[in-house]
Amino acid sequence: MADSMLADVLVLLAATLLVVASLRRLRLPPVLGFLAVGAALGPHALGWVEDTETTSTLAEFGVVFLLFTLGLEFSLPRMIAMRNEVLALGSAQVGLTAAAFGGVAWWLGEPAAVAVVLGGAVAMSSTAIVIQQLTEQGELNRTHGRLSFGILLFQDLAFVPFLALAGVIGAAGTEYTLTEVLTAVAKAGAALAIVLAAGRWLLRPMFHEIAVSRTSELFTLAVLFVAVGAAWATHAVGLSLALGAFLAGMMLAETEYRYQVEAGIRPFRDILLGLFFVTVGMQLDPRLLAHETLLVTALLASILLLKAAIVTVVARGFAGGWFKSLRTGIVLSEGGEFGFALIALLLQNRLIGQELTQLLLAAITLSMVISPLLIRHNKWLARKILRESGPAQTELEREEAATDALAHREHVVLCGFGRVGQNVARVLEAHGFEYIAMDLDPFRVRTARQAGDPVVFGDAADEQVLSSVGLEHASAVVITFSDPDRSVRIVESIRRLRDDVPVLVRMADDTRLEELVAAGATEVVPETLEAALMLVSQALIVLRVPVGQVVKTIGDIRRHRYSLLRSVFRSDKAQLIDGSHALREELHTVVLPPGAWSIGQSLDAVSARGAEVSFTAIRRDGIVGRDPDPSTTLREGDVVVIYGTPEALEHAEAVLLAG
């Protein structure tokens, strides 16, 4: 028995590794890979893995962690700031979509309560796909992006009663009545209010005490206890495990420890979540779907068209025209992870038949597969449908055009846009020098571009990328990566293209100094030796050595490649600088939607409400203002760039949005 289970796990891990890695290259969500592995290896296809009680139990815990993570994404301050879009627009979208598809399911013979849950499953959209794609395209702050985000927030709330309903009608061996259903939904609503209050007044002090201990294991154990304990609590009162986990995530989302919670839970979530989607994929019968291709295609088209039409109509008043409301409808036309969770609960309790399950899962999966294409081309599709013509360039295209124009002027090329690269960029800006930065961290690139910085995603060691950022017109290149191997490759690539441009390289220490100089670096700046030089200069000044002599001494040491400072006795336990990760401050952008508390308020007023961060810039109408005056008044649509620890950033965002 144990050998068989181990073999099943090995087969699933190997197949999932190959499929998910392929999907990553195609920039498709990994959930599709998990579903494909389950469908291919499950009992309806190759039959290599059986759907056993053990895998089902583990998959149920996968649902728990999926919904716990989704709950962490909930933002009460943003919901308050966008209350009009969330409550009015979101309720109309969820209600009408659930009624339309639920009515069809009831007409086909499903019980009324089951039909309502099925309608709710189809009404949900994929938060992960929509937010990621809109952010990459620079459209999250546009009208259709803001409306889409508001609807997604309401879907998070609406999922709670749908989940409660699925739990009560799935109770084994019982007959449910209308009173029991309404009672379950009322319990879910009461639980929602309780957990939001508990997150603010109970969990925050508890996690504060745990965080003070600085024990990561204790923090992870506390997170697991809260997630599993909340799931058990709701199950004990007759609701589902998944509901408790989702509410627990919402509780912790209201604390400043959300990011650390997500990091601690990620290893457990990813493993069990993958197994959940694999077991869902096992329910798919490829042969049946092949015979029902036309029916699956018709159901897919119905989901996409009807959801898009409903959103377009209800968003018309908020968007100010059909064009923007249609773009919102196209963005939200796909299915989502919440739909999978609801269908899985119905399937586990045998409340829906296999054939209907097959069709729904296939249609929702396909809608998620094509959703990145629909979202990427939402503007073009809306123009075609409405037969309108408009501005040729999107915001992303305008940013790319501006960057391309900058590449043809004299500028500085920054290789790396981490802490050091950003500091160099700020000083260059202060002195009136333009720059283009490159980095391989997609989140950092997106955030920087949103704040108005000319940063592109690319490998600085690639000669074609160097050419595209205008190395030909560069007056200097600054390499800020701490990895010496990468720096050597970058210097070599630069010298193959240009041998006359100054190249400055940052290093953590002096171990590869000669190698970098031999590769063509003009200057190499070892951090440890420069820190020693600063101490030396300050010490000499304190000892009343003339300033001119101090400057001459420092210059001589640099000219001789720090030879005087490099003759040291090394420790046998030498560690990297900042091994404790004490430098935790980072930049973060907050977009002010209509209804945000801080609109009309000054930065001083925001700080007075407890926002303990630095306001480094404000982007307004495409123009970036650095180091804004504390008396600056904020406006709707402003992108506020703040700097501080993750906890301080979380609190400051709550103040900006909800006061």
Task: Describe what is shown at a glance.
It is built from 29 helices and ten strands. By secondary structure, it is of the alpha/beta class.
Can you give a write-up of this model?
64% of the residues lie in helices and 8% in strands. By secondary structure, the chain is an alpha/beta fold. The N and C termini lie far apart (58 Å). The chain has 29 helices and ten strands.
Q: In percent, how helical is the residue content?
A: 55-70%
In the predicted model, the low-confidence regions spanning at least 5 consecutive residues are 566-583
Question: Structural class per helix/strand content?
Answer: alpha/beta
Give a quick account of the main beta sheet: strands, pairing sense, barrel closure: 6 strands, parallel
The level-1 CATH class of the largest domain: Mainly Alpha
Strand order of the largest sheet: 3-2-1-4-5-6
Q: Helical region count? A: 29
CA radius of gyration:
28 Å
Choose one word for the global shape.
globular
- Terminal CA distance: 58 Å
Number of strands: 10
Q: Which percent band covers the strand fraction?
A: 5-15%
Q: Can you tell me the CATH architecture of the largest domain? A: Up-down Bundle
CATH topology type of the largest domain: Na+/H+ antiporter like fold
* The number of domains: 3
Arithmetic mean pLDDT: 76
Write the layout of secondary structure elements.
Blueprint: H1 2-25, H2 30-41, H3 53-72, H4 76-81, H5 83-107, H6 112-123, H7 127-136, H8 143-169, H9 178-212, H10 216-236, H11 241-253, H12 258-282, H13 286-291, H14 293-314, H15 316-319, H16 322-331, H17 337-348, H18 354-376, H19 378-386, H20 395-407, E1 411-415, H21 419-430, E2 435-439, H22 442-450, E3 455-457, H23 463-468, E4 474-479, H24 484-497, E5 503-507, H25 513-519, E6 523-526, H26 527-542, H27 547-559, E7 586-591, H28 603-608, E8 614-620, E9 623-626, E10 639-644, H29 646-658
Parallel strand pairs: 1-2, 1-4, 2-3, 4-5, 5-6
Antiparallel strand pairs: 7-10, 8-9, 8-10
Helix pairs in contact: 1-2, 2-12, 3-11, 3-12, 5-6, 5-8, 5-14, 6-8, 6-17, 7-8, 7-18, 8-9, 8-11, 8-16, 8-17, 9-11, 10-11, 14-16, 14-18, 16-19, 17-18, 26-27
